[in-house]
Each structure stands twice: as structure tokens, then as C-alpha cells.
Amino acid sequence: MSYSSLPDHFAARLEALQAQDLYRRRRVVEAVAGTRVHMDGRELINFSSNDYLGLADHPRVVEAFRRAAGEYGVGSGAAHLISGHTREHHRFEEELADFTGRERALLFSTGYMANAGVIAALTDRHDAIYEDRLNHASLIDAAQLSRAKMKRYAHVDTTALAALLGNDGSRWRLIVSDGVFSMDGDVAPVAELAQLATDHAAGLLIDDAHGFGVLGARGGGSLEAAGLDPAEVPILMCTLGKALGVFGAFVAGDAALIETLIQSARSYIYTTALPPAVAAAGRAALSLLREESWRRDHVLALAQHFRAGVMQLGLQSPPSPTPIQPLILGEAATALAWSAALARTGFLVQAIRPPTVPAGSARLRVTFSAGHTQADVDALLAQLETLARGAGGVT
Length: 395
Ligand SMILES: *Cc1c(COP(=O)(O)O)cnc(C)c1O
Known about the structure:
Layout: H1 8-19, E1 31-33, E2 36-39, E3 42-46, H2 59-72, H3 80-84, H4 87-100, E4 104-108, H5 111-122, E5 128-132, H6 137-146, E6 149-153, H7 158-166, E7 173-178, H8 190-199, E8 203-207, H9 222-225, E9 235-239, E10 249-253, H10 255-264, H11 266-269, H12 276-291, H13 294-312, E11 324-330, H14 332-344, E12 347-348, E13 351-352, E14 362-367, H15 374-390
Parallel strand pairs: 3-12, 5-6, 5-7, 7-8, 8-9
Antiparallel strand pairs: 1-2, 2-3, 4-10, 9-10, 11-14, 13-14
Helix pairs in contact: 2-12, 4-12, 5-6, 13-15
The structure holds pyridoxal-5'-phosphate (PLP).
């Protein structure tokens, strides 16, 4: 490969990434049918998608998308505050507010932008933001954008967080956490975070990208699973590109929060609204999420079946009650080798390497969908057993 168009220091950086097994490559998906993807002319069972409920290609979701595209066209044509806010967006926001038990909800074009918008709108250099060390990159970047002081506490360590909060003279404090951690699948101690927020008159934002639709009796997410009242977590962010199978994100809360965001969240104001057809597809997916609880029961049962299997194989997998099941392999090269071996035998399981995860904790991130069968999971386990034997056991 030649890097001749770049100044030398960029070329050196690319070469260093290659040498450390940290170079990232995209693979072209040629076709998708449910949990099956075609790549390099071969069909693989996809264990690397966040379409947890198998809704991305559900006929009702696809039909809603098609109908709205016929009615409104594909592009929304403008930002929400100009002429891009259609009846599909508006109704979807009302339905999301109702589903999450909050006064209002506001659609954003992506989760990354929702986090940037809400955090930068609510804090400035006089404030402090507290973040779990394993929070999603978008939450870290959002804090930097806000110019507030950022303090990171050890993963799910509420004792450390309490100590930090006790020593803070900032004007206002905002606690920010993933609800379900995206690369580990474990659940944040949301009830304790809510208590700390109350005790220290701090705000609390939960990013429930991976809990929404999956956890809780009605699929309400990690807050519902913990039995929390919406008032205890005043700012909820969820994405629509994971369990809901579409695209985009929303923030839900009381009317004052949502009006503040409409007036001042820059990633809301200065960007084109989601295509109306995406909102229509999201509405169809939300109604399926409400009607078909078997989808979350099934995906959670598959994940636990997989866990039981990997424990028997002696593989290292930290506890996770969600469809995200990490297999920690250590070195980036090992994770890449396992991922490549799985691909050769018909399984798409991506290797996750630093800086997405801490150095020395490169892993396979295995995710499940309601579209998988137990036979799919057993086939993956059989292949992992072969790999674990070949590696002489992995710890
Ligand atoms: C995926 C994800 C996001 C970003 O959402 P996009 O809609 O993909 O931009 C934010 N937070 C968490 C925890 C995520 O997993």
C-alpha cells in the first residue's frame, strides 16, 4: 500500500497501526437476509449486528418505510426547525414519549449527535461531567465539546463516584452513563446513580442504546428493569438503530428539557431532519416491540444459552445479562485470528480492539438477534470449541 498523498507523519501512523494489528478494514456486505449476510461470495451467520429484535427487515417495518417514501419522498429537505419536521416525525416523538413514560421526546439524526447535542446544550465550562470509564465514545466526545470539566470514574464504581461528587465546587454536575455497556454487555448500577444524583443535586443522563427494547418487562430498557420511575432519571437517550432496527435516536424527558434542546442543541438545530420514512419505519418497529414480547424473551434466552456454553469451554466472558456477550482474548492479533477462523467456517463475529476497548482486552463481541435459532448458537459454540482446543485453552 502506498501513502504518498499524505504528509509523512500520517503515513507513519498508518504503518504503526498495521504493525500493531490495530488497522481497521471494512468488509463489503453483498446481501442481507435476516441473520444471514453475504460477504466475499459466501453466506455467514451474522453474530455482529445490533438488530437485537430482528426488526430491521420485518415486512411491516419495510412496508411503512416504502409507504412514507412514496408520500414524502426520501430526503426530509431541511432541518426540523425549517421545514423538515413532518407528521411522521411528530407522531413518532409522541409515541416514544408515551412508551418511555415521559412528557416529551425529541428525535435526533444519530445517537452520536443526540449525545453531543444534549450534553453540550446543558453544560458549559462552569459545570462538571462525571463519566463511567467504559462509556461510549460519543459520550466522551460530547463532554469535550461542552468544555465542562470531565471526571471519569472507574467502571460502575459508585463509591468512587460518590467521593468525587463530594469534592466538587462546580456550578452544576451531570452524571452520564451507558445503561448497558456496549462492548461488555453489563448493566450500569442505575438505581445507585439515581440516588447519587439526588443526594448531590446533580443531573443524570442514561444512554440506553443497548437496553432500550431489550431489557425490562415491556422492553422499556435498563431503567424499567431496575424499577426506576422516569423522574429518577431525568434525561434518557436511546438509539433507534439497534433493537428498533431502523436509524436515529431520541432524547426523552420533561417538557422543559425538550424545549431547552429545541432552542439550543446545536446537533439538533443545524442538521437535516431524519428522512420521514425512517420515522415511519420506527413507528412500525415500536408497535412490534410493544406487541411481540417473545422477541426479547428469545434473544435473551439465546444469549444465556451461549453463556452456559462458553463457560463450559473455559473461555473468558465477563457476566452479561444482555444480548452482548464478550469473549475476552487479550491481544489484538488473537482476536483477529479467531474472527478470521470463524469467518472461514461461516460465522461473522467481529474482533473489537483498542482503542475501542482497553489495551490487553481485545475480544470477540458476540451479539444475538431474535432471528437466530438455538441451532445457530450451537453451531457457533461447536466452532469456538475447536478454536479453544487449538489454542490449548484460552484465559
Ligand atoms: C451506538 C451507540 C451510540 C451511537 O448511536 P448512533 O445512532 O449509532 O450514532 C451512542 N451510545 C451508545 C452506548 C451506543 O452503543
